[in-house]
């Protein structure tokens, strides 16, 4: 059957007018697509009527509720730029995000309104719309029968400003055009076999690119139903799938890890789910999830900026991203020269990490990268020499497969050897009971780094330091310098709203944190609990090498 093709988000929304298929499911609410787009037209008319001079930017600060999708539709048909506001960015950081993106209107809900209290966001109180307040209904009433604007919106128009995750530094507002949204809707709906009979379960936060690229856009494109959950819940996942009869789920970060940490049940395979698509899941979690729930999982590589994308292929071996598309290479970030292929021994140990690991670049210039809003310096850094520089580390094996090695801040240097965190995390993730693992550099008292790992274990799972040491000794692919000197055990790793681990926070806290930490007083020794006297000893060692300043760095 031939499918309609749309070139813009505006066209996608307009095509749903008169569509009586279910558009949105939320808790006990249900809206047809026709009801959905008429609600969008009402909000588009309201926003256009109160528009002021300057950028037509509307910030949305909401959890995954139907109103959020109505406003996304309103932005699409009115030509407004919708700005995803991250509720985990609070205080001055939140205010800075809103002012930076020139929001002239903010749409929020009463439970999140206190986040704005007392902040200078550059938006008057009369221009903050609270969608679950009676006054909002009154403001919408005059526009209840409004139709769509007469003029179509250009494909080049900016539809979204989406902040990057900020796992390593300040988030940047990535520009997303109307055309790019339509392209994602088309390609993902085709690759995942979505159509009007599909039910897309959307639990990822919709201010983030994954939820909009892999969830909202393909559902709108084909007229599939969207089943919304306010916030992701691992314990509620399979019950939601059954309640909504969901057939498709998208994720980013570590949700699979959290779901797998819930107790298995005899009826885990009794559901309607057919496909799962995401990025940043571990190979082990992909396999375990598929085995437990009987659903194929596709984990692709991509970013909010869209400058590089690597798609999985059915024949690829375990642990790889896929084959780099034309124009995508792994290069030395200083010289720009292609890195040598990886040398891997019979035990799977990477032998030449320092020379084979480099940055993923798109020499085609990253045509999908549309820039950062009001941040020319960051744009120049991403697109230097006419290439798109991803900031991600990887290496190529002799068969041409691409292996992810972490972010550009994930390098560690131990005893003069450079290596990346991701291969170490993949190995330690095999340890029984691990839900999440983060490997990161902490300063050594003399020179370079030490390896530290933070582990979040399954509920009720105690940490057995002796067994962990034994486990490390059994991993034949663990590099000699890769074994952690410090091990932090935590009930909950710090993560972004999209379940990405905040390594900058872990690095700043090091071993002087509230969680219990085990350490090796010397490299060859077994792990033991780090006591306060040990911390004093470590500080004296830093002082002896005149490196105390390293402990004061955030």
The stretches of 5 or more residues where confidence is low (pLDDT under 50) are none
Distance from N terminus to C terminus (CA atoms, Å) equals 57 Å
Total beta-strand segments: 24
Widest beta sheet: strand line-up: 2-1-10-9-11-12-13
Question: Helix share of residues?
Answer: 25-40%
What is the arithmetic mean of pLDDT? 92
The biggest beta sheet is recorded as: 7 strands, mixed
**3D shape:** globular
In terms of DSSP E residues, the strand content is 15-25%
Instruction: Provide a count of the helices.
Output: 16
Structural class: alpha/beta
Q: Determine Rg (CA atoms, Å).
A: 24 Å
Textual characterization of the structure:
The chain is an alpha/beta fold and 554 residues long. It has helices at 9-14, 33-49, 66-78, 92-100, 134-140, 178-191, 209-222, 237-244, 255-260, 283-293, 353-356, 376-382, 421-428, 465-474, 503-509, 532-544, and strands spanning 22-26, 29-32, 57-61, 81-84, 105-108, 128-130, 158-163, 173-177, 199-202, 225-228, 248-252, 275-279, 297-299, 328-331, 358-362, 388-396, 402-407, 411-414, 417-420, 434-443, 449-457, 486-490, 517-519, 528-529. Strand 1 (22-26) and strand 2 (29-32) form a beta hairpin. The longest helix has 17 residues, at 33-49. The radius of gyration is 24 Å and the shape is globular. 46% of the residues are buried.
């Amino acid at each position: 059957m031939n499918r309609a093709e749309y070139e813009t988000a505006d066209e996608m929304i307009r095509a749903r007018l008169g569509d009586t298929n279910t558009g949105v499911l939320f808790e006990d609410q249900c809206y047809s697509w026709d009801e959905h787009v008429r609600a969008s037209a009402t909000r588009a008319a309201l926003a256009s009527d109160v528009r002021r001079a300057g950028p037509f930017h509307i910030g949305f600060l909401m959890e995954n509720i139907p109103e959020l999708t109505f406003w996304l539709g309103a932005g699409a048909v009115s030509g407004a730029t919708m700005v995803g506001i991250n509720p985990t960015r609070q205080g001055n950081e939140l205010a800075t995000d809103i002012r930076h993106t020139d929001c002239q209107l903010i749409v929020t809900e009463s439970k999140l309104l206190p986040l704005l209290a007392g902040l200078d966001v550059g938006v008057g109180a009369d221009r903050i719309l609270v969608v679950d307040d009676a006054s909002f209904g009154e403001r919408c009433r005059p526009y209840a029968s409004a139709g769509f604007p007469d003029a179509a919106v250009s494909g080049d128009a900016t539809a979204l400003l989406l902040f990057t995750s900020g796992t390593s530094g300040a988030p940047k507002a990535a520009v997303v055009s109307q055309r790019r949204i339509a392209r994602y809707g088309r390609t993902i709906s085709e690759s995942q076999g979505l159509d009007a009979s599909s039910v897309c379960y959307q639990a990822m936060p919709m201010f983030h690119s994954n939820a909009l690229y892999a969830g909202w856009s393909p559902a709108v494109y084909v007229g599939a139903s969207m089943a919304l959950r306010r916030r992701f819940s691992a314990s509620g996942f399979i019950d939601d799938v059954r309640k909504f009869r969901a057939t498709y789920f998208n994720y980013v970060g570590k949700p699979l890890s959290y779901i797998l940490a819930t107790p298995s049940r005899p009826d885990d395979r009794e559901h309607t789910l057919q496909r799962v698509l995401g990025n940043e899941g571990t190979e082990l979690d992909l396999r375990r999830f598929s085995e437990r729930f009987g659903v194929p999982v596709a984990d692709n590589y991509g970013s909010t900026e869209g400058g590089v994308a690597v798609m999985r292929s059915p024949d690829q071996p375990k642990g790889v991203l896929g084959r780099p598309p034309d124009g995508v290479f792994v290069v030395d970030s200083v010289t720009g020269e292609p890195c040598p292929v990886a040398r891997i021994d019979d035990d799977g140990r990477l032998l030449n990490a320092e020379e084979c690991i480099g940055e993923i670049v798109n020499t085609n210039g990253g045509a999908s990268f549309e820039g950062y809003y009001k941040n020319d310096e960051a744009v120049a850094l991403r697109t230097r020499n006419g290439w798109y520089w991803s900031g991600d580390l990887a290496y190529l094996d002799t068969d041409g497969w691409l292996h992810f090695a972490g972010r550009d801040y994930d390098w560690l240097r131990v005893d003069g050897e450079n290596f990346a965190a991701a291969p170490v995390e993949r190995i330690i993730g095999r340890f029984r009971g691990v839900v999440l693992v983060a490997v990161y550099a902490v300063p050594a008292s003399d020179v370079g780094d030490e390896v530290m790992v933070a582990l979040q274990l399954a509920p009720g799972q105690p940490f057995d330091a002796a067994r962990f040491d034994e486990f490390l000794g059994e991993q034949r692919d663990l590099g000699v310098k890769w074994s952690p000197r410090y091990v932090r055990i935590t009930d909950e790793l710090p993560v972004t709203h999209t379940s990405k681990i905040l390594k900058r926070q872990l690095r700043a806290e090091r071993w002087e944190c509230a969680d219990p930490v085990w350490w090796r007083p010397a490299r060859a020794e077994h792990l033991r609990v780090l006591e306060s006297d040990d911390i004093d000893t470590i500080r004296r060692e830093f002082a002896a090498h005149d490196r105390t300043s390293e402990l004061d760095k955030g």
